[in-house]
Write a structure and sequence with these properties.
mainly alpha, 15 helices, 322 residues
Length: 322
C-alpha cells in the first residue's frame, strides 16, 4: 500500500516538473516529455494540474495556469512555431484523460479570461490535421467533453463551439448528394472537392460517430442533426467503410435520427438503406447495438507509445469515455 502511494506521489512530482521543462523552446526531448505526461495522466491525482499555477515563459504568450500553458503549447506545436524540435501531439492524449473528470470537462467548456476563448474551440480545428496522434487525441477529448449534456447547446451553436463541421467533415469522402439533401447541409459540407479524403483511421471515425450519438441525447440535438441532414452523411459512411465497429455505430445513430418523436417508429426506411450482407455471428443481417468506443492503437485512454499497440476486445454495449 505504502509503495503504491509513494509511486503515485513520485509520479505527481515528475508530472509537475516535466510541465515546466516542456515549456523550454529549445528542449530537444519535448515530444518524449509530452508522451510521458500523457501516460502519467492515467492517475486520477494528476487532474490537480487543472489548478496548478506558475508564470509562463514570455515566448508562450499564455497565462499563469499550467493547463492553459499546455493547451497553448499544443496549438503552437501544430506548425512548429514554438519549438522546432517538437509538435506536442501527445498532449492531446493528456487532454482526453483530463476530460474524463467533471473538472476537466468544465475547463474545456469555460471561456478563459486571458484570451476570451473556450478551450475546446482550440482543439476542434485539429480533427483533420495531418498527425494521426493529434487527430485521435482530439477526437477522444471532444467525445469525453460531450458527456456534459447540459453543454450540448454550446456544442451546436454556430457562434460558440460549432462542433458539427469538425465531426462531419472527417467522416466524409468525395460522395455526391442529392440536391435536396445538399442544400440543407452545413455550408462547410457543401461542394467538397472531388479529391476529398475520408479519415483513414477507423477508430477515429467511430469516435466521431459516437460523439454525434451523444449529441442526440436531447430533443434539440436530434432535431438539429436531422435539420442539417446528418443522416445522408452517415448513410454514405456506412456504405463506404468496411469496418464492423464503424457500421454498428452508424446503425445505432440512424435508429435515433429516423425515430418518430411522437413514439411512432419510422426507422425501417433508414435501416433498409444501411442493409448489408450478413456476416459471421450476425447471420440474420439485423443491425446490432453499439459496440465499444473506438480504442486500441495507443490512442487516448491507453498508454502512449511510439509504436501502435494491438487492439483489445471490450464487450461493453454503451458509449464510454475514452
Amino acid at each position: 500500500m505504502y509503495a503504491q502511494l509513494f509511486g503515485r506521489l513520485r509520479s505527481l512530482i515528475e508530472f509537475h516538473s516535466n510541465i515546466f521543462v516542456l515549456q523550454n523552446p529549445a528542449e530537444p526531448n519535448a515530444n518524449e516529455i509530452s508522451m510521458l505526461l500523457a501516460n502519467l495522466a492515467k492517475y486520477d491525482e494528476l487532474k490537480d494540474i487543472l489548478h496548478l499555477e506558475r508564470p509562463a515563459p514570455n515566448e508562450l504568450n499564455s497565462n499563469n495556469r499550467a493547463i492553459d500553458q499546455l493547451l497553448d503549447l499544443f496549438v503552437k506545436g501544430a506548425d512548429g512555431t514554438y519549438n522546432k524540435e517538437a509538435n506536442f501531439d501527445y498532449l492531446s492524449y493528456l487532454f482526453a484523460d483530463l476530460a474524463k473528470h467533471s473538472e476537466g470537462r468544465k475547463y474545456f467548456l469555460t471561456k478563459q479570461e486571458y484570451d476570451g476563448v473556450v478551450p475546446l474551440s482550440k482543439l476542434v480545428v485539429f480533427t483533420e490535421h495531418k498527425s494521426e496522434i493529434r487527430r485521435k487525441g482530439v477526437a477522444s477529448t471532444i467525445k469525453n467533453v460531450a458527456f456534459e449534456i447540459d453543454a450540448h447547446p454550446k456544442f451546436l451553436d454556430e457562434d460558440e463551439i460549432n462542433i458539427l463541421p469538425y465531426l462531419l467533415l472527417p467522416v466524409m469522402g468525395n460522395e455526391e448528394y442529392d440536391d435536396e439533401d445538399s442544400l440543407d447541409m452545413l455550408a462547410d459540407l457543401q461542394l467538397l472537392p472531388p479529391d476529398k479524403k475520408r479519415e483513414p483511421d477507423h477508430d477515429i471515425i467511430q469516435t466521431h460517430v459516437e460523439t454525434l450519438m451523444l449529441l442526440t441525447t436531447s430533443r434539440e440535438g436530434r432535431d438539429t442533426l436531422r435539420a442539417v441532414k446528418v443522416y445522408p452523411v452517415i448513410r454514405e459512411l456506412h456504405m463506404h467503410v468496411e469496418n464492423d465497429n464503424v457500421r454498428e455505430a452508424c446503425e445505432r445513430l440512424v435508429q435515433v435520427l429516423m425515430r418518430d418523436e411522437e413514439n411512432d417508429e419510422k426507422v425501417d426506411g433508414g435501416m433498409k438503406a444501411l442493409a448489408r450482407k450478413p456476416r459471421p455471428g450476425n447471420a440474420s443481417g439485423v443491425p446490432k447495438p453499439f459496440g465499444r468506443a473506438g480504442g486500441g492503437g495507443g490512442g487516448a485512454g491507453s498508454w502512449a507509445t511510439q509504436q501502435e499497440e494491438s487492439e483489445e476486445e471490450d464487450d461493453d454495449d454503451k458509449i464510454t469515455e475514452v
